[in-house]
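*** Query protein ***
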Amino acid sequence: MLPKLVSPRGSAGIALMYIRGAVVLILLSGLFSVAQSKKPQPKGKTGSEGTARGKYIVESMAICGDCHTPNEPNGSPDRAHWLQGAPVPFSPAKPDSNWPINAPRIGGTPLPASDADMVKLLTTGIWTTGARLRAPMPQFRMNRGDAEAVVAYLKSVTAQQ
């Protein structure tokens, strides 16, 4: 017979540990928000600095390539088709008839919408039709400078076929 594993704190101690963890996460997210709001917001850099910033946001933060770029057979992104659209790599947990099958091309020119519409999408989560994007697309709420940097980067992407 195996011994029963019991936390020295008991179930109340475990619950307290989870509550403390949640409080720490809430406080950290609040500090991040305050720090972000105190930073001066740039006025839409579209030169090489804005493109580099947009690249960082697209590739390292928003990870757009995970859905908008097809994968190589080994599972790595196909950089020759970077942000050129791809099958959505996962399905919803529950059946959803509104779930997209393909993620559209977002890199290169022309963009799927005007620069102003793309900025609106990235700052409000609302597409040109006036509707919110459907899952699994995140409903971004970027500041204007970040959204303009992302648009500058997306326009700089070229397919390498």
Summary: The first helix runs from residue 10 to 38. The two ends are 63 Å apart (CA to CA).
